[in-house]
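Bug: token stream looks shifted between consecutive jobs. Job 1:
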Amino acid sequence: MKIFKSFPPHDRRRFAGLAITILSFAMLQGCALSGAGPFKGSIETDAEATVPYTVVDLSASTIAPYMRARDVAPVSHIADREVKDFRIVPGDVIKVMIADNAVEGGVFAPLSAGGTVFENVRVGADGRISLPYVGRPNLKGLTLFQVEEALSKSLAGVAIAPLVHVEMVGDMSGSVLVAGAVKTPGRFSALKGPLTLLDAINMAGGPILEPHLTNVVLRTGTSVTTLNYQQALSGSNTAIPPGSEIVLERARKRFVAMGAVGDPGLHDLPSENPSLLEVLGVVKGLREQSADPRGVFVFRLGDEDKTGARVAEVFRLDMRQPASIFLARQFLIQPEDAVYVTNAAIYEWQKIISPIVQVLVLGRTLESL
């Protein structure tokens, strides 16, 4: 300031004027680049840009192709529980009871005494087991009934009319693996009966995320199926074969909110078929101090056309119109949509005028020095 005061009064005024001009230009340039997106007028007039798009004004006459589907009525049928025979695989654990009908001196206990029981007999990696007097028969791929027949034949000449009963104790062959976005992932047995998709997921504690945000991948060894968990709850439950793997993962059902909204950013869709009104509620509505209610836009990159190019559409809703609330309630928001609310013109002017006033005040201060 001492250096500034050393200039003659007229030079000080010229210097102050120059400073005001430079600062005003710099701050106006900053204001021109500010904001969270394009201006309302630019969206409506720049449809012939590098990426062409179509602007659709939402009204009672244009909304029909973009409306939410009606809620599907609940179905009455249930999943068929197809019963399949377990076939022994390496790692299975079985319980074997052998009874000998000999009056005296039998190798095994008689049936009246409960027979001779071998607990927790594990099937080896080669599919074989080892039992006294039975040897090491290969049981891989056999059903429980076939295992009983095989063991009875192995005891020929050792026991008189032996009786064999086999139970599954630990079933690798009949179990189902559930992993991913569930509360208690793990392997679950089907010993109590055949499992459906919902049975297995419920055994794992259910999904961590909301149903519409959860995808289910079912691998059976011969096929892979992907469906939304909400679909399974709505009637697409199905029986799953033993040995299946079920993986739950997050569905990419998100949207981006930008501009003059209460909570901009990346958000999960609030429901399976969310409306624009629901989505605006998730982001805490329009910012009352700065939003232009006539500039509510939804940007969407649609499916490919016949030429292979993806069709871009921009939907505009004038929230000043009373009917707009009903239109927003009917308009379907799709995954990866971008909801953008422009600033009001008066707010944009305030952003420009405010720094100018600050610069003028600074100029007067400099001139008074």
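Job 2, same session, no restart:
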Amino acid sequence: MFVLPAAAIFIVFLWLPIAKGFVYSFYQVDFVHGNTFVGWDNYRTVLSDRDLLVAVRNTLYFVGLCLTIGFWVPIFFALAVSELRRFQGFVRASAYLPNVVPLVVLYGLWRWFYDPVGPINAALQALGLDSVAFMTDPDWSMISIVLMETWQQFGSAMLIYLAAVLSIPRDWYEAAEIDGAGIWARIRHITLPSIRNLVLLMLVMQLIATSQSYQSQLAMLDGGPMKATLTYALLIVKYATTKLEIGAASALGVLMFLVLALLAVIRNRLQDKGAGA
């Protein structure tokens, strides 16, 4: 009885929409005149769409950039903060502060940063370097979004890593210091092996989160320039809201669901392994 309200909310707002998504993927959805069963036509439509390959490639590129740039930043900061002897609380609060910035403010702030006459380009010109077209150059547009999201989101992950690092028995570090181990030796032989399972779990969770990303691509550039930031999730949104093809959008969602389900299984196994350890 205690679990029933939470289970009802979970079913109504999560599993029911998932089930409807599977059903709608086989229909031409029309909320006015009624739905028409079309079989596998929606899947044929999306699989023959040229934008699908572009979106998949951009999504893989975006995920790769997030792992290359953003995944290691919170780990580095957690290790650095754990070594602080003073002002650790202030640094933790400062690192988490970007997470509480409203998205509207975040996007407006970074559009100003990336403006041709904004502070970043002004600093580059002051150093004698050429300005960068962050928002209009296809080579820089996705990188710009990743840098923005890394700045905004690394604080929460850093706190998770920091909690794991601080839970390591201090006796291990004291024994290592007595044996003459420096800071890098302690990190390599004590810290990193101790948080290895957490790092793997966070890696899979970031793969799931970044593969579903579309908000910043939509708000900052709407998939441009030249479809350079058109991700898979953003393509689903465009099918649903611009083309008003709910069935085709559901088919894309089902395909993504199947891929992410595999990653979710891996995440749960890593989480169970970490809990057992």
